[in-house]
Write a structure and sequence with these properties.
By secondary structure, this protein is α+β, with helices and mostly antiparallel strands. The chain is built from six helices and 19 strands. Strand 2 and strand 3 form a beta hairpin.
């Protein structure tokens, strides 16, 4: 949205006001009893300088561990929680003063003192966003729980220079599925396409979650870098009714996500196109994507609103 004025005086008084509002909205301040110790993680901050990983906490966490999609908002992040005890390599779920929340990687635990690796953080005396180490109690860090990942993809550097190379197999075996996420069949919806790259394109079985503020559904397209994802659709209809031929929501992608091997498809049908879903109602849904001109779809899933 753009604001215009024919009066210079109004223009110059309005710009500073919106600048101040924007700064306030961007500031991340966890709900904590007091502030933790924050220091820039120099190695990672330099490695990802100017990169979206530096300014997106979820992107940074995905560099090290496997995470599901649908983590834009705090509700999705909170639904990941499957442990109340911190350990190195776990993902900390952080409550902030906005609806997005925050995630970080636990890199050290010493009694009640926890150190995490965080992306998208403001640092006093430095401009822009940074990757930092934060140290404090769970309360000071705003941590409300932890997600135990299946494995660590690459070593994580700790503040003292040592690294976390793996999490034990026992930890992996004891991971329980969050009960608030409705899992569908574990079979993937796979369509092999005849393309110049002879790629096998996969649209993973969809997942969903429901909160008092609405529902969200999401899936992941796995592809070769050269494959082009040009469209995505969400079909949603009441259970027992005939599937609608008109998508509830859709997206077009002009750049096609080339140079990416994984593309997240995420919808919040409770607010799509200003359409509200009925409460305490079961819906069927299906996510469809167009890759290299061919259409692939997830199996039909179900979700019930609160």
């Amino acid at each position: 949205m753009h604001f215009y004025s024919h009066r210079k005086k109004l223009l110059f008084t309005t710009i500073p006001f919106f600048a101040i509002v924007l700064i306030c909205l961007l500031a991340i301040r966890p709900n904590a009893s007091s502030g933790p110790t924050v220091r820039v993680a120099s190695y990672y901050d330099s490695l990802y300088k100017g990169n979206s990983v530096q300014t997106n906490c979820v992107y940074l966490a995905r560099k090290f561990v496997e995470l599901p999609y649908g983590l834009t908002y705090f509700e999705g992040k909170k639904n990941l929680i499957n442990s109340n005890t911190p350990s190195e390599g776990y993902v900390a779920i952080v409550k902030t003063n906005n609806r997005y929340g925050h995630v970080s990687i636990v890199v050290n635990v010493n009694g009640s003192t926890i150190t995490t690796l965080d992306g998208n953080w403001t640092v006093s005396g430095r401009s822009g966003r940074h990757i930092v180490y934060r140290t404090g109690t769970a309360s000071q860090l705003g941590i409300v729980g932890y997600y135990v990942p299946k494995y660590i993809k690459q070593s994580i550097q700790k503040p003292n220079g040592s690294t976390i190379k793996s999490i034990g197999s026992k930890k992996t075996e004891t991971v329980k599925t969050p009960t608030t996420i409705t899992k569908k069949t574990s079979v993937e919806a796979t369509t092999s396409l005849s393309t110049p790259s002879r790629a096998s394109i996969k649209l993973a079985t969809s997942r969903n979650y429901s909160t008092s503020k609405g529902v969200a559904v999401y899936s992941t397209i796995t592809k070769n870098k050269t494959d082009r994802v040009t469209k995505a659709y969400l079909y949603l209809w009441k259970q027992g009714s005939k599937k609608t031929s008109v998508p509830l929501d859709q997206d077009s992608f002009s750049k096609g996500f080339t140079n990416q091997t994984s593309v997240s498809v995420y919808y919040r049908p409770g607010i799509a196109n200003n359409k509200r879903l009925a409460s305490k109602t079961t819906y069927n849904y299906q996510i469809t994507a167009v890759v290299n001109g061919k259409t692939i779809s997830t199996p039909i899933g179900t979700i019930r609103t609160k």
